Amino acid sequence: MRKSFPLCRSGCYLSLRWLINKIIGTDRVPKNGSVILAPNHSSVVDGVLLTALLNISRLSPCHTIVQKESFKEDFFGYLLRSCKCIPVDRQCKQSIIDMFRLALTYLELGDRVMVFPEGHLNNGETLRLARPGAALLALESGAPVLPVGIKGTRDIFPVGGKFNPFARAQIYYGKLIDTSGLSLKYHNSGKDERKIIIDDLSLRIMKQISELSGIQMHRRMR
Prior knowledge:
single chain; 7-stranded mixed β-sheet; 42% helix; alpha/beta; disordered N terminus
């Protein structure tokens, strides 16, 4: 059984919880077992806000994949390190490999891993094309995927703007996507068929994210 977080750390998480004024579909978040959370990415606060929420509500780590530079921030960096988020340097092949292996290890242990399928911030109006990371992690591990829609975070911390403590975010959890059968098919397939499976799963994930977040799909995925 996991230990709860120290009081000082829990206080930091609670200090972020007040930035969220609506949460829909909490019952869809599995209480036990591995799961891959896949949210849209519209603001730099998306990851730390959702990570904090999950740690408060479940008292066990959600290991979010975050770009390495974010760990240098004082407050956000502390929170990311405290719940063992996974750093990655997207320009370094070895860093990507290490990130993937660590994420799979956490999933094998029954933990949750959060990855943004878009990879980078979208413009708030259109989702970016999905990168294969979320689908690939699911297919390699057999863990289910939970799409998540996040609204309002661009108002809290707009791109190139300043933090607005009066804005609020809304979190919408989608329908869990079971990948156990797809994972078996993936592992028994050749290179070309694997790519099709990854692309199809990525499309399913992004469709839910679009519906939940209210942000339209990229034109190449419609």
